[in-house]
Amino acid sequence: MGSSNSEVYDAVIALPVVRNAMNLGIQIANGKLVGIDYITESALRTPVNTAAKKVVRQLERYFSDPYCGFDLPVEFNGTPFQIKVWHALLQVTPGSVLTYGQLASRLGTGARAVGNACRRNPIPIVVPCHRVIAASGIGGYSGVTRGGEVQIKKQLLQHEHFQQ
What we know:
α2 (80-89) crosses α4 and α3 (100-107) packs across α4. The longest helix has 15 residues, at 50-64. The protein is built from 5 helices and 6 strands. Helix content is 33%, strand content 16%. The protein has helices at 50-64, 80-89, 100-107, 111-119, 148-159, and strands at residues 2-3, 11-14, 23-29, 32-40, 98-99, 132-133. The strands form 2 sheets. The chain has a 4-stranded mixed β-sheet, with helices on one face. Strands 5-6 form a two-stranded parallel ribbon. It is an alpha/beta fold. It has 2 domains: 2-64, no CATH class; 80-159, Arc Repressor Mutant, subunit A (Orthogonal Bundle).
């Protein structure tokens, strides 16, 4: 999460489910979604290409109906393990959660390794790392355990009608 110039993104839209002013910077490469950043201090930017338009339409649909799902071409840039975790995240449905330990058990690895892969997820919301929580509570988000990022996670889960 940070501040950025909107021109480095193929689109910048408001994040409506978060109570503080936050935008989403969308990055496209080779016609595929490669990144979504939480950004502040950036002007909104209409999509500059067809792929960005499709991402914006589907994000807007998600913000209206969190159960609609995504059908977007994505390109993951990460280690083979990170990509394995990100693919597993795509199977976690809206309104449900897994603990880091539960996801780790499914993948035959450790909870900390899963958490580290979630922290490096380049496509939040579409790849729903916000649906992975700690055994003792909500856990962290984007590598931090308190502050604005965790509030975003809570608000995304509330948007999906998850009750903790």
